[in-house]
Amino acid sequence: MRISRKQSTRRIDLVAIGTQILLWGYAFVVLGPLLLVVNDALRPSRDIFRNPLGLATSPSFQSFVKAWEKANFNVYFFNSLIITVAAVLLATAVSALAGYMLGRYRFKGSAFLSAYFLAGLMLPFRLAIVPLFLLLNDLGLVDTRLGLILVYAATGIPFSVFILSSFFRQLPQELSEAARIDGAGEFSIFGRIMLPLVRPALATVVVFQFVPLWNDFFFPLVLLRSTDKWTLPVGMTRFFGEFQTDWSTLFAGLIIMTLPLIVIFLLATKQIIAGLTAGIGK
């Protein structure tokens, strides 16, 4: 019995060691290119041409300053930040209210509204770009940040309503009933009781909206004409054309573009995991 236990323990140890090796190998393969980009962004371009895989022995942030000032990354970055944050906040606010109503109440037309929002998940918005452009043009919203914010908010609402309504539906009815007995109104119940309970879902929908909007190239290219209103993905095309031989500055621009995504993932990782796994135990 002791021998068999020792053998099983050894097998478990070998499996654990093998799993760790595979995971570390996978992490190296995934993070290797990112680390190489960071390393080369801290080196002069002439050193990159001489030794592409060399280490940055004397790190310099000159390429970041060059990308930020001379390549107009400061303009593109703040345009992307303003448009993306405003669209995410607007879509999340509308989706939270709609998801609360559809998840907590049954009324005439609720099934139709749920199907209406779900239809937004099945129909690609890019197929409607011509009538959408004509509508925004009639409203005077072409080549404006507000027009792009409204389009982005509309693209994020269907998915957010679908997620949030599911979370609101899982909350016990006793909470809202007890609050009503204490004299709380519907908005107090929503804002003070229900909304804090779905923070993992809110974090999930915020991240799932932020990432594709931050990286979107199609809608800014079609709807924005002025270069001072361009977002980072559109500005990157001009950036690559101007600095195609300056690899250090190119790598610095890529890091600047991906840095907000890394930050938001690091800040919201726990909430995202809680949101994605909340329904497993149900």
Give a description of the structure.
Helices cover 78% and strands 0% of the residues. It has 2 domains: 2-41; 63-277, MetI-like (MetI-like fold, Orthogonal Bundle), CATH 1.10.3720.10. The mean pLDDT is 83. With 282 residues, the protein is an all-alpha fold. The chain has helices at 2-41, 45-50, 62-69, 73-104, 110-122, 129-138, 145-170, 173-181, 186-197, 199-215, 218-223, 232-242, 247-277. Helix 3 packs across helix 13 (247-277) and helix 4 runs antiparallel to helix 10.
Please summarize what this structure is.
The protein contains 13 helices and no strands. The protein has helices spanning 2-41, 45-50, 62-69, 73-104, 110-122, 129-138, 145-170, 173-181, 186-197, 199-215, 218-223, 232-242, 247-277.
